[in-house]
Amino acid sequence: MPQAEACDTPVDTGVDATVAVDLDGARHYLRWPRDRTLIDVLLDAGIDAPHSCREGHCGSCVATVVSGKVDMETCDILEPADLADGLILGCQARPVSDEVQIEY
Known about the structure:
Number of strands: 8
Largest sheet: 5 strands, mixed
Strand order of the largest sheet: 3-2-8-4-6
Shape: globular
CATH topology: Ubiquitin-like (UB roll)
CATH architecture: Roll
CATH class: Alpha Beta
Low-confidence stretches: none
Distance between the termini: 17 Å
Number of helices: 2
Number of domains: 1
């Protein structure tokens, strides 16, 4: 079951995770350093992922964790039910599990 952790869970910054991101009909496979946000990793790879404020307040980067587990530094706009459904903010999400699948 996908999980989005409540804010501020400590993240192990050891070995990079891997992420499969489904966006605009394409699947992208990337290494995801545990100290980097999903949006940063996608933009650095040249993938035009939806985002705006990059501070966790606008919701333009909302995505769904299909499998795996992530943590978010700030998640003011997501309700507990949203987190239970696997919704995340890409600008705040960092990997907890070794493999994560995300869908935009």
